[in-house]
Amino acid sequence: MRRAALALVTGLSLMALPACAATASPASPARSSVSATPSEGFNAADVMFLQMMIPHQRQGIEMARLATTRAVRGQVKALASAVETTQRDEVHTMTAWLIGWGRPVAADPRAHAAHGGLHVTSPAEIATLRTMDGDGFERRFLNVMIAHQHNAIDMARTEIGTGLNAQVKSLARRVDQSRSAQIGQMLAELN
What keywords appear on the UniProt entry (predicted)? Predict the structure, then answer.
């Protein structure tokens, strides 16, 4: 069961990679329909989603990097590695889109107060994770990451419902699917 869940999460995570990898550098050959700058229009919801997801994803990357060296079980380390790779590529893509649109990558956090503020894990929680290792780290990491990925799903679903740009909405659908699968695997690892 756990192997099947890991395969599912890894597969979903890797589905996003070719699209994101196509934007890795201006000289890289295009391998998908996703471009560095989506060609169609965008709205404020698209911009807000990207600006909120970038710091959220960076936190996920930071926590995943901790887990690749501090977790005990190979399944948790493999999940963390997949999270890091996928979210790093997504941050690259989202950053390129905002720059291409002439929008700031980092918005004033107060600008999103009406939308519930930035959905990030508290810096204190990440600092606590940095002090832990072994079984204690692994259990806390899984619990914190489950909550963190729920926030990503909430933001993605808001984008799907209110965004305009088809490529950004497609990314949001991939975030919803992959994070939901990751949460399922993490819950299985906690049991």
Answer: Signal
Query: Which candidate, 107, 103, 95, 84, places its Cα nearest to that of 24?
Result: 95
Number of residues assigned to the chain: 191
Angle between helices 134-162 and 74-100 (to 10 degrees): 30
The token duo for 111 is 């600008």
CATH topology for 2-20+41-190 is Ferritin (1.20.1260)
Helix, coil or strand: residue 107: coil
Contact between 165 and 49 under an 8 Å Cβ cutoff? The reply is: no
Task: Report residue 143 as tokens.
Answer: 């619990």
Among left, alpha and beta (phi > 0; psi -120 to 50; other), residue 135 is alpha
What is d(CA 121, CA 26) in angstroms, rounded to the nearest whole number? Answer: 32
pLDDT surpassing 90 at residue 120: no
